[in-house]
Each structure stands twice: as structure tokens, then as C-alpha cells.
Amino acid sequence: MYTLIANLMLTGIFGVSCFLPKLILDLFFSSKVISRAACLIQSFCVTLFAYCEISTFTIMAYDTYLAVCHPLRYAAIMTNRTALRLIAGSLIFSLVIVALLLFLSARLPLCGSHINNFFCDYMSIFILSCVSNPLTKLYGTIVFTAYLTGTMMTIAYSYLRILLVCLKVSRNAAGLVFPPLLNPLIYGIRTKALRVRVISHLQKTIVKILIG
To answer: Transmembrane segments in this chain: where (predicted)?
Structure first.
């Protein structure tokens, strides 16, 4: 878990560094110009950050699922080595996807130079493109949609299983707690002397209410 938290922190630092330095320069020097190469690099970094962060949240959901649903096997399954492998695998997968998107975007001729955003992204480059290249747009849309759907389904499944386990534990805990609490009352009522005293007290109370 600590390895995943450290990775999430590093991913956040990387995400901020994708656009914050250029934003600070623009604010200090009133320069709102960026070269095409720098724009492509920033688009690559921003998109890679998005993919890596989603992957990290998915791995953390899986880690939580193992900790809650398989607590006795958790230490054997989710070792630091396993966590590093999952992080490295998701990073390599994200790099391949985003690198291909960068390659397709770099080949597009641009007819405009104004981006309605404070950082570059692939969608802005597609809008400025002179040609309508359905392959590039289709690739970006399908890959991101499939990736987001897969990760969201994994996260939802993990937390659904966690919720079911918590509900089961709550029912079992209630079954262990409530019977001991009710036992004194049940056995007390079954005791003849106590039952007589309770009935007598109720009769006196009813008589007082009726008379008064």
C-alpha cells in the first residue's frame, strides 16, 4: 500500500510539472506562445499523467480488495515486488498508447494557432488540424473509452466485493453481539419469581392509572 501511495504522489508531481512551469512563465512574462514541438510534448505528458493516475487508482482499488476480502493471503499476494510490477506494467502500457497517439498527432498539418486552454492537449491539436483524419480521432476516442471503461469496471467490482464483505461481517457481528445482550432478559422472564414480580408490578401500575 505504501508503495502505491508513493507512486500516486510521484504521479501527482509529474502531472503538475506538465503544465505548471509553462503557466508560471506565461503569467510572469505575459507570453502566451508555445512552439508546436513543445505543445506536442506537453500533450504527451498531460495524457500520460491521466492514464497513469487512472491506472494507479485501479491498482489501489485492487490492493484494497485483497486486503479486505483476502486478509490472510494479502501479505503473500501483494508484495512490494508485485506492486512494482503492476506499476511498471501500467506505465509501459500507458507509454505505448500515448506514444502512438503522439506519432499520429505530429503528422497532422495545422491551419490554426490559437488554443482555448492554458495547456496543450491532443483534442486541441485535432481541432486545429487542416485535414479531417478519422483514424487519429477514432484511435484516441476508442482507446481512451475502452481504457476508462475497463479501469472503472475494475474499480467498481473491487469496491462492490468490499461492500458485500463488510455487510456480511456486520451481519455476523450482529449475530454475535445481540444474543448475549438478550439472554439475561430471556432467561430472566423465564424465571418464575421474576415473572410474578413483573406481573404484580404491572397490575399495580394499571390499577393506579385507572383509579387516579
So the answer is: 6-25, 37-62, 82-106, 142-160
In a structure prediction context, what are the per-residue pLDDT tens digits for the chain, which is 212 residues long?
788 888 888 988 898 888 888 888 877 877 778 888 888 888 899 889 989 999 999 999 999 888 888 888 888 888 889 999 999 999 999 999 889 888 888 887 777 777 777 788 887 787 787 776 667 777 777 888 888 899 899 989 988 988 888 787 766 555 555 555 455 555 555 555 555 565 666 666 666 666 65
Beta bridge partners of 129: 110
Give domain limits for the chain.
Answer: 2-183
Report pTM.
0.73
Taking domain 2-183, whether its CATH number is 1.20.1070.10 is answered by: yes
- C-alpha dihedral over 82, 85, 89, 90, to 10 degrees? 60
In sequence order, which residues have a C-beta less than 8 Å from that of residue 106 and are 6 or more positions away?
40
- Pair 125, 105: CB distance under 8 Å: yes
Taken in order 164, 165, 169, 170, the sign of the CA dihedral is: negative
